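Tutorial, part two.
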Amino acid sequence: MVKLSENYVTQTTFRVHFEDVPADRWMSSAEQPVKLSLNIDGFHTLRYKMIREPNRVVAISLAEVPYRVENGNTYSVSSQYVADKVAESLDINASDVTMNEAKVYFNMDALKSKVVPVALRADIKAQRQYDVYGIPMLEPSSVTIFGPQETIDTIKVVRTQMLLKTGVNQDFTESVALDLMDGLIRSNVKEVKAAIQVEKFTEMDIEVPIVATDSLRVRFFPDKMTVKCLVAMKDYASITPDGFKVAVDMQQLKAMQPLLDVRLASWPPTVQVINTRPDKVEYLIVQ
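Running the prediction step on this input gives:
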């Protein structure tokens, strides 16, 4: 007990692990070894000895601890912050820790940046007769990403993590994390807010005229395409054939094929098409 109550000076090495690196900076090595001396009694020395060497690590948050530029890509923090962390981990006074150097140096390189749109990944299942209405609104709709030049050049859009919802029957807003490719890219924005509109839908059949798109005078048989679709109840009265367009394969017409392929080329963005008929038509060229 007498021996343990005496003070001992112990030379040791701790590793500083830097956290919260700015999004526009890249650190090739997040850990930096530092040498220090502990002037502590035998009881605390035993506690220190019980810490295995791989676990002699203290974390320094660059979001909380001030750092300064030394030159180029070299930065530093005061060793006193490291001493405080070591003392806290060993339950001793900071004055019992003597750092060999006044500063801890580390390197950070600037990353390339780019502004890209955000795309929502979602699997939303609504209650019967309800569905998502329109395009989800994202806030923010675009973000600045940072990363190596060769990676940034290949990225056109940043997607979110998958948003999963079931049984929805009303509008909702959800925060969704960005998919930053397992740390390959960075962003100051970690998540976006997705505002989803949900409306009650009903089925609707609408007949859309089939017309030729060039100067030829052609009559088609049948001359209308029937489109079965889902329409929000609030839009039901405003949906007209003018919002739809049918495309005819005119190359088949020029080749004098007996039947022409037809397809629905465009429709209102709030309409969900279930099916169309017919997919082929006969025709007559009017002289």
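The longest strand covers residues 191-209. In part three we will examine how such features are distributed along the chain.
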